[in-house]
Amino acid sequence: MKKAREFGDDLAIIFVESQGATQERMERFVWDRGWMGTTAMWTREAPFRTGSNGIPNFALIGADGRILMKGHPMSMQSKVVKAIEAEIKKGKGAPDDAPRSLKSAYKALAKGDYAKAHAAARRVVARAGDDAAAAEAFIESVDARFDKTLKRVEYLLSNGYALRATALHDELRAGAKGNDDLEARAAALTGSMNSDLVSDEMKLDRAFSKLEVKLHEKGLDEKLLKRVRKMAEKNEASRVMRRARRILDLAG
Known about the structure:
Elements lengths: L1 H6 L6 E3 L6 H10 L8 E3 L14 E4 L5 E5 L5 H15 L11 H8 L3 H13 L5 H27 L3 H15 L3 H8 L2 H4 L2 H23 L3 H13 L5 H12 L1
Parallel strand pairs: 1-2
Antiparallel strand pairs: 3-4
């Protein structure tokens, strides 16, 4: 979990429970060990088999979907960390097979500057050279990534993460600045983001998140849970409180 916090969003971590525990027992196990509060995901459904029978075992998957390493994590920890760092560094630039003319476009995209990435690729298309088709494909990938992130904003908003939704939406609007089409797509959500309901949810999210951080540190502490219960009772209809009620259900 230390590496989950260290690498943040640059590394996606999926933990797979493989000994038959229920969903509730698995979640309680994670809470009791103070492993919540990172971007790591927990599931009882293995995405695929690593081929290893022992526990624990792992597979490190690259950005292109290839399995880079697998085995026992503790016996090769330093090698795994170096491989992760190399893959993250590679992911912040253009793919090895990308045309040189698109290097600046990939660099802009890595920084979240969708408009600049679009413009750089459009210049390549306009030259109608050998790289035009690759530039068109790149533009399509930029649009798909932008739309996927917009959907993530909607998901976060619908599931009680008003603060994270607002921050991500602001990043998208900043990255779209200068591109009329992308700005319009981001603006389609602006009305929803500026509503009184979202404003109220943000206030509650800010208050609950402070308690949530403490719960991540201390586990399901009864004194903290008492404060969560009181907050949930006062705000029954809130989307933010869906998160609170799940914690309360696990605590019993």
